[in-house]
Amino acid sequence: MHEIGMCEGLVELIQRQADGRRVTAARVRIGARHAVVDDAFDQAFAVAAAGTTLQDTAVELVITPMTVACDTCGSRAECADPLAVCPVCGSDDVQVSGGDELVLESLTYGEEAPDVSRHPR
């Protein structure tokens, strides 16, 4: 499950970006060539974030397609299947480009809980 390694790095990156702020959500764009499975990614993030300030962070995963150029029929199309074939003629004689990115697009920060020790009753 290669998602674990990705998520461990992602947790480290988010923690650096957050700089102590509470993160409630993160949006990650990942290319189809990475062959990430949504459920496996969610589980891997939960494991990587367990025991950290990110353990309750919701992660939105956006899969971006790759471009497939067929050498047999000349067509070009987007494809989300890492085992790409031409969607027009079915040939596997294709050139694939793109779909290899891994980008932390955004973070949503939550409100910090008030420090009640500084406000006596």
Automatic annotation (TrEMBL):
GO biological process: protein maturation
Superkingdom per UniProt: Bacteria
Key words of the record: Metal-binding, Nickel, Zinc
Keyword Isomerase: no
Positions bound to Zn(2+): C70, C73, C86, C89
Binding site for Ni(2+): H2
GO molecular function: nickel cation binding; zinc ion binding
General function of this protein: Involved in the maturation of [NiFe] hydrogenases. Required for nickel insertion into the metal center of the hydrogenase.
Similarity comment: family membership: Belongs to the HypA/HybF family.
Protein name: Hydrogenase maturation factor HypA
Species, as recorded: Nonomuraea maritima
Gene name of the encoded protein: hypA
